[in-house]
Amino acid sequence: MSVVKPRCLMKGFTVRVQHWEDCLPPDSYGWLRRYSVLIHPEAMEILGVTPRQPVRVQSLEREYVGVVWPCKEIGVLRICLLADDTPSDEIVSIIPIWNPLHAQRISMTIVSPQTIRINDSLKDYIQMYLTNAYIQPGIAIPMSYYGQCLEIVPDVPLDLALKDMSLEDGELESEHVIFVTTDCTVSLSTVHTTPSSDDLLFEIASIGGMHIAKKTIMDFVLTPFLSEGSCCSVLLWGLPGSGKTFLLSALARTLKGSGFYCQSMDEFNEKYALIPPKSVVILDWPSVDKEHKGFSKLVQLLDDHPCAAVVLSVREAEDLDLGVRVRFPVEVEVDVPMEQERVEILRFLTSSPDEDIEELAKRTHGFTAGDLKSLVVASRYTEGHSEAEKLENARKRVRPTGIRQFILEAVIWPQKHRDAFERFGIDPPSGILLYGPPGCSKTLVARALASESKMNFLAVKGPELFSKWVGESEKAIRDLFSRARQVAPTIVFFDEIDAVGSSRGSEKSSGVSDRVLAQLLTELDGLEKQSGRLDRAIYVGLPCPRTRRAIIEMRTKRMTLAEEDIVEKLVSKTEGYSGAELVAVCRQAALLAMRENIDATEVRWNHFEETLTTIVPRTDRQMLQVYERFKRGVV
User: Fold this and answer.
1) Burial of 249: CB neighbours in 10 Å, binned 0-12, 13-18, 19+
2) Mind telling me which GO cellular component terms the entry cites (predicted)?
3) In what order do the strands lie in the sheet with 309-314?
4) Given Cys at both, which of 149, 243, 301, 412 links 305, Cβ 3.0 to 4.6 Å?
């Protein structure tokens, strides 16, 4: 929901701007550069603000003061926040500030976990950093000084404190915003903070989901670092939205001045010389360019720099060369959250009752933490009588990140009656082969199965797996099964698998098809059991009279038939027709009635008779005999 109310409020969706530096004036530096808010010039005109106008930014997670700048590269009702890592399409509010206060002198407290000396260089840097800034007393401003992460907290100016003091309340009003002019004098003091190890570990442990990743960070990085032991470098990887950035941000906040946090290869390349010794270097790289200078500096950092450890986050572990990966003793995949982890995340995001949260968690297989957050946000703008209904309606509109692109015993029972399989000590069937002539609804059965089981569905046609590039066909199969495991439980449906499943080493097979088949068999069961990769083989043959009657009744349900016995006549006349051919017969008969009279209200038997002369069964009898022999185990 986007809205602009002149001189009061602008509410819109966030967007990322690739070259945002071009929208800022050349003299923007420090606070003014970090806390800029980009909006379209037309939106600024409607809102009634001018460039450098102070505004209050309110998002779902935080609130701060910034300044607006015009940017024609974004939509009229879009907002770009430079101070935040807010993802796209988040709703934020922009509220103009009309009467900022001016102070001649401001006292600030530097909060740092490390001992820091106040000298003229630091004073000049902070004075320059805050020039033309809009600050709030008591609200910390994060900044970096020679690789050290600091927080400077403005104290209450004496003249403002006296102004706001009363008998009932001696605190400064929280709405005051102070403009730091070039003539304002800044005085500094320091506070050295030493948080306890329990406090540091609590922030990481309190994050919902990501149990394995959190335990890895605490066991190999945080706990050894706090006990002055030897830390271990860690490589994190996983789907977008799985929580990697959130986890690294929490780690950076936990370590404060002892952590060096970079969110791109460009930033890492620029700040490499500022990395302090014995610090934990935290790198969040959404994309990896092996030709980038920052990539070579990563190797240099791992080999030669006296930092305590490196925590690197990438989308795919394969994005790194093997020579770089071996420098990380620990690798951990940030998996798509399991059901219990989704419950924890949803409890953090919504105040719904536990029973509603648990039910929603069961129906959100494959949803990452980012997907769940998007679902909760979308539910606020979705119709429904209760919060549970709104969440369910929003779930139908939000697609899991891992999906953007069989039969009762094998699929439904393992989900609904898991205890029965455990009681008998057996594994549920994991593979089913649906075989039969074309047009007999094998694909439709698989899709209905996915819908009935509420599981994710990955469909691929056999020929789509082949590529002209060496190794790409096998990689396509590996990626498919990897994605299926990430968003499990999942139905992986191979349509037209006969294009892949040729006999190995036969004259009709090629080297590519042999390699693709070998990769497929490896993914189906690893390298262990060889007796049969597919537990069940189910023959989906031509429809019997009862099935033909059901198909015809379904396809003619919205038609008006002239005679009552048309359905029975069709059933008797369509022996050997496949399901697809029956659908075509019903459709063609209706078209004939329309051609005869566009205002016709019913379909007569003669229309079906004429259709049966043009649409005939095309399933080869010899093919049916082959399927029957296969069903009996005779090949």
Assistant:
1) middle
2) cytoplasm
3) 259-262, 280-284, 309-314, 234-237, 330-333
4) 301
CB-based contact 381:1 (threshold 8 Å): yes
Contact 379, 391 (CB under 8 A): yes
Picking from 22, 58, 27, the residue whose alpha carbon sits closest to that of residue 38 is 22
Other residues' Cβ atoms within 10 Å of the Cβ of residue 624: 15
Tokens matching residue 143: 């900044």
The alpha carbon of residue 598 and the mean position of all alpha carbons in its chain are separated, in whole angstroms, by 50
Number of Cβ within 10 Å of residue 113's Cβ equals 19
More confident position, 558 or 631: 558
**CA–CA separation, 574 vs 417, rounded Å?**
40
- Which residues, 6+ apart, have CB-to-CB distance to 86 below 8 Å? 14, 59, 61, 92
Alpha-carbon distance values, 298 to 312, 592, 611 (Å): 10, 71, 70
Cis peptide before 489, with omega less than 30 degrees from 0?
A: yes
Q: What is the pLDDT of residues 480-514, one digit of tens each?
A: 777 666 666 677 777 766 665 555 555 555 566 66
Angstrom CA distances, 621 to 542, 576, 625, stand at 11, 9, 6
Q: What is the pLDDT of residues 336-386, one digit of tens each?
A: 787 888 888 888 788 788 888 888 888 787 788 888 888 888 888 788 888
| Cβ 577 vs Cβ 617: under 8 Å | yes
Strand partners, 495: 461
- 363 to each of 397, 428, 453, 599, how far by Cα in Å? 13, 21, 10, 46
pTM recorded for the entire structure: 0.48
384 Cβ contact list (under 8 Å, min separation 6): 390, 391, 392, 393
d(CA 387, CA 385): 7
Query: How far is the C-alpha of 64 from the C-alpha of 178, rounded, in Å?
Result: 13
End-to-end CA distance of the chain: 62
Reported as a single tens digit per residue, the pLDDT across 386-422 is: 888 888 888 877 767 654 433 444 455 565 666 776 7
**CB contact at 8 A, 621 and 542:** no
Could you give the CA distance from residue 53 to residue 4 in angstroms, rounded to a whole number?
16
